Amino acid sequence: MNAENNKVALVTGGAKRIGSAIIKKLHTSGYNTIIHYRNSKESAEALATELNALRANSAVCISADLNKTDAIQQLAENALTAWGHIDALVNSASCFYPTPVGNTTESQWDELISSNMKAPFFLSQALAPALKKQQGAIVNIADIYAEKPLATHTVYCMAKAGNVMLTQSLARELAPYIRVNGVAPGAILWPEHGGASDHNSQQRLLDKIPLARTGLPTDIADTVLFLLRDAPYITGQIIAVDGGRSLSF
């Protein structure tokens, strides 16, 4: 099968961490992949080079600032230009850091709301016509903290709660042509900035996980692939991939 006939997936925040794992999983499964990034140009281009060495003309990079609505629209247009169609959108890009009440700024509010809720909506809206043509699917990366708040992360938790409702609302509005689901990771990777950064905090979190360990980025990627490829009668659902963490809140 030539590259133009392969299914195509756009993954936001696809250059690093969980986004990169999703890109690799989808590529291994035969998808052509569009790696969105904002600042991680070097990582995105290295990943695309790696994937294109495995299968020629199978991965491209597109930069966009998801805080800007016009950039989101341009991202959608550029993504469609790559192979002429889109079968899957994975809204993985996300900002995560604490915003203690009393010290939260408007710029922090805007960034957290934009990356976790506003951008997934406007990108889904922009790509909905193309996804409808392909009977495609959307997967949003939510968070188990959308239901149970994490201390000092009020804005992030609000944004992810909105992400969950976005998933459910789009699933109703875009049916029957486009399925929309979400994946809610638990402790997969320790955050680069903020959150459970010291050993004691990490151990306290692990003590609350029935499986007594962190998950792997591939656990999220496997679930995303399942929802895109192997779940034709599932829509509007949020799957927690958290080692049972949500059982012990």
What this model shows, in words?
With 249 residues, the chain is of the alpha/beta class. It has one domain (3-248): 3-Layer(aba) Sandwich (Rossmann fold), CATH 3.40.50.720. The chain is built from 7 helices and 7 strands. A 7-stranded parallel β-sheet has the order 3-2-1-4-5-6-7, with helices on both faces. Helix 1 (17-28) crosses helix 7.
CATH superfamily: NAD(P)-binding Rossmann-like Domain
Placed side by side, the strands forming the largest sheet appear as: 3-2-1-4-5-6-7
Instruction: Supply the CATH class.
Output: Alpha Beta
**Uncertain spans:** none
- Average residue pLDDT: 94
The tally of beta strands, per DSSP, is 7
Task: Record the SSE blueprint.
Layout: E1 8-11, H1 17-28, E2 32-37, H2 41-54, E3 59-63, H3 69-83, E4 88-91, H4 106-133, E5 137-141, H5 154-174, E6 179-185, H6 199-206, H7 217-229, E7 238-241
Parallel strand pairs: 1-2, 1-4, 2-3, 4-5, 5-6, 6-7
Search tags:
seven-stranded parallel beta sheet, Rossmann fold, 7 helices, 249 residues, alpha/beta
